[in-house]
Amino acid sequence: MFDALKNGAFLRISIGSFLLTLAFMAQEVVLGYELYRITKDPLMLGLLGLAEAIPFMALALFGGHLADRLNRRTQMLVMLMLITIAACVLAHIAPSLQLKGATRHALWIIYGAVALTGLARGLYTPAAASLRAQLVLPEYQANSAAWSSTFWQSGMLSAPVLAGYAYLRIGLQNTLWVAAGFAAATAVLSCFLPNLGVVRDAADGARESLWLSIKTGFAFVFSEKILLYSISLDLVAVLFGGVVAILPAFADDILHVGPEGLGWLRTAPGAGAVLTMLLAAKFSPAIRPWR
Question: pTM, whole model, 2 decimals?
Answer without folding.
Answer: 0.80
